[in-house]
């Protein structure tokens, strides 16, 4: 890939040598984790291709569209309202935060005790290896957890186009008013960036594109309720991960094509794991590309992952935006309503999330739940402690895992996961 | 003390055996750290007495007042508006959070990677050793950092009288509106608790009591600008710490009496440390009683602490509330104005704090600044990283310390502090 896109990456100011190393590791990881799987659906070929071109063709396509005036907005969080970005004719992409890079440099600007996701986002910037970040016309940060909120102050010293969105911490009326005001402010900022006014028509289009993507993912999720599973948890996670990068309409088509195939598979009783494979619900922190460590360990330990209660999964995708409003104001209200339901652990209290985990465990016929938290992610770590008693009451076995992106604890994690799988099997 | 107050503590549901142990350690610590100091002002006798009776006479007095209808409100944060509590005729006290206790039990409900202050507050509850907590009619939590915000969900399972105040994360107009709404809601809650309506007169009285306390502390702080210092940093910190517990009017008188003496000392050139002792400004996380580890290390390493940029120090005390309003609404606005200025690291951006540190370093003629953060306190840890370049630009030497309440790292800290003191001396 390097030779073909070298000029493009260079023009983005990237470090080609470092980037080549990253791509080599990423490619090897993808081969080991994904291509080694048995009995994958053919529909995953599309995702293999997307991943092989994740820093190449997709960037080229985005840059070409930018030549035609389509601005690029980068984000680190599912609270950034995609409907509004699309309404202004811009592209929304998730920014790299799933792998350790340039950690020595990172720890000169952030405390060592910062979660891997935040450190990673800084590593990609400091190491100059994220073409999404370097292509973005606007980078959106958000006041979610302390780590992100405070680290954006440091990121602001490294980039010139950071926009920070404030977010509420409760689900009170005042909190909703804050979210509304921030979404309105964001809409103005995106209009200014693109020069395109947000209208009823463009908002409806933005909502339609975004809802269609979510609906395709809902379809995929529903098919994972089948027993045996027609698709691995890793492949389904990959689809969620790719949803942050890919052109949305093409992505939607590809997921729907995959779902057509999975429906056939279910009819024909074609599965990726044997019957009675223990079914696990993953819950907790988001897993950005290429953070596949724990799912890989789970699915190579005799279990199948049937769902993700995560921002890269159902927490990020589950609610649709009501598109019935007939003016900008009511559509904006509908967007606020939709995002205000997100049960991120930054909210307090956050009982909805516990209820949702229980519901998912039932819907997906999970035999157990793995609560996954990144080290130093206090919101999800503390919720995981509280969830233990709730899951016990519900009779749902739960394993609490805290880890980061380093491979060092893989063996230890595997031992714990295997013991858990054996227990619930 | 045990025999005299045993019945009282028992009636509060405390664990007498555990509490005796705590008091023994606390008493020994106080003797080692405070009573061993040379050349202390006589005015510190009052604070010695207060500390010797911190769980005894002060609790007795509060409980007696409660018999007469004076409710007790406990708090963990300087954002809880004392003016409003006093206006409703209630007492505001800081709750225990300065020492490790019952850590094994704490780590069953909170992640190990939680800051010492939060763990301590849980330890005092789980160990049943905080008479303030057990006396409180209302415990106020606040959505400041992730650790506190999320841990209140767990505390809510341990106590029946927790009130959680939401707080903003920025200094925007919407953020101020949120603080205002939360202070109004809190005023209603305190009125309901006490049965006393908050009126212009009672608010003015609440503001007067609280401002007088702050003004006395400002006087004390101003006297610490003298070189050589008429009072140790430890003793001045103790006054700040006691301000959270003591009856406010008596406290104000005692600080003013101490200041009278310090003025005489300055006139007579009586000091606690030799001339040219290196002067250090402490900055960062709050130090609750009996968290004296780092100041003790500093002042036994040949330096004197001249100021605290901390919630237990100038950050908590520096601004007065305007008392000129003639109705409840304008007095409430003045209270909001005053608290909205607090430059806590939970805000983003928080440039005011950096400016304040530079200003304090100049005002107090500090030779260096120690940035103190509790382990896992992301807001202050991340700000400390960012402050390094600012302090370098200002030519102010800075040392970054991360620690907790355990004595284990004391030797290592002493080595680092001594090297810093030597460098700036």
Keywords:
homodimer; alpha/beta; Rossmann fold; four-stranded parallel β-sheet; 19 helices; 55% helix; 10% strand; FldB/FldC_alpha/beta (chains A, B); 2-Hydroxyglutaryl-CoA dehydratase, beta subunit (chains A, B)
How do the helices and strands line up, and which of them pair or pack?
Two copies of one chain form a homodimer.
Chain A lengths: L1 H10 L4 H20 L8 H9 L4 H11 L4 E4 L6 H6 L3 E4 L8 H7 L6 H11 L4 H5 L2 E5 L3 H10 L6 E4 L7 H22 L5 H24 L9 H10 L5 H20 L11 E6 L8 H7 L4 E6 L4 H4 L10 H13 L10 H13 L4 E7 L3 H17 L3 E6 L6 H15 L1
Task: Describe this protein's structure.
2 copies of one chain form a homodimer. With 425 residues, chain A is α/β, with parallel strands linked by helices. Chain A has a domain at 2-204 and 323-340: Rossmann fold (3-Layer(aba) Sandwich), CATH 3.40.50. Chain A has 19 helices and 8 strands. The radius of gyration of chain A is 21 Å and the shape is globular. The model of chain A has no long low-confidence stretch (mean pLDDT 97). At the A-B interface, helix 9, helix 10 and helix 18 of A face helix 9, helix 10 and helix 18 of B. Chains A, B: It holds the Pfam family HGD-D.
């Amino acid at each position: 890939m390097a030779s073909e896109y070298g000029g493009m990456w260079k023009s983005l100011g990237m470090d080609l040598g470092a980037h080549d190393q990253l791509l080599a590791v990423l490619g090897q990881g993808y081969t080991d984790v994904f291509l080694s799987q048995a009995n994958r659906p053919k529909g995953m070929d599309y995702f293999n291709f997307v991943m092989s071109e994740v820093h190449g063709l997709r960037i080229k396509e985005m840059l070409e569209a930018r030549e035609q005036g389509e601005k690029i907005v980068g984000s680190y969080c599912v609270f950034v309202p995609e409907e509004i970005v699309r309404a202004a004719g811009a592209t929304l992409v998730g920014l790299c935060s799933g792998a350790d890079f340039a950690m020595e440099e990172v720890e000169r600007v952030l405390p060592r005790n910062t979660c891997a996701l935040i450190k990673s986002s800084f590593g990609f910037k400091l190491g100059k290896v994220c073409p999404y970040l370097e292509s973005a016309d606007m980078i959106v940060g958000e006041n979610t957890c302390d780590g992100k909120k405070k680290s954006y102050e440091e990121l602001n010293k490294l980039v010139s186009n950071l926009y920070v969105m404030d977010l509420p911490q409760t689900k009170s009326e005042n909190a909703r008013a804050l979210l509304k005001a921030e979404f309105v402010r964001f809409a103005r900022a995106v209009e200014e960036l693109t020069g395109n006014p947000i209208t009823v028509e463009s908002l409806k289009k933005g909502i339609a594109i975004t809802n269609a993507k979510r609906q395709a993912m809902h379809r995929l999720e529903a098919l994972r309720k089948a027993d045996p599973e027609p698709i691995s948890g890793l492949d389904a996670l990959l689809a969620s991960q790719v949803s942050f990068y890919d052109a949305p309409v093409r992505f939607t088509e590809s997921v729907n094509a995959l779902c057509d195939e999975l429906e056939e598979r279910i009819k024909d009783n074609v599965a990726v794991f044997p019957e009675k494979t223990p079914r696990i619900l993953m819950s907790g922190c988001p897993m950005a590309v290429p953070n596949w460590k724990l799912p890989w360990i789970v699915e190579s330990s005799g279990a199948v992952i049937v769902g993700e209660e995560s921002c890269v999964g159902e927490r990020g995708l589950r609610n649709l935006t009501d598109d019935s409003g007939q003016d900008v104001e009511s559509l904006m209200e509908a967007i606020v309503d939709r995002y205000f339901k997100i049960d991120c652990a930054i909210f307090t209290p956050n009982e909805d999330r516990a209820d949702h985990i229980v519901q998912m465990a039932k819907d997906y016929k999970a035999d157990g739940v793995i609560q996954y938290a990144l080290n130093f992610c206090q919101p999800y770590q503390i919720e995981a402690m509280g969830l233990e008693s709730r899951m016990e009451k519900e009779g749902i076995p739960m394993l609490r895992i805290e880890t980061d992106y380093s491979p060092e604890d893989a063996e230890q994690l595997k031992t714990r996961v295997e013991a858990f799988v054996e227990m619930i099997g």
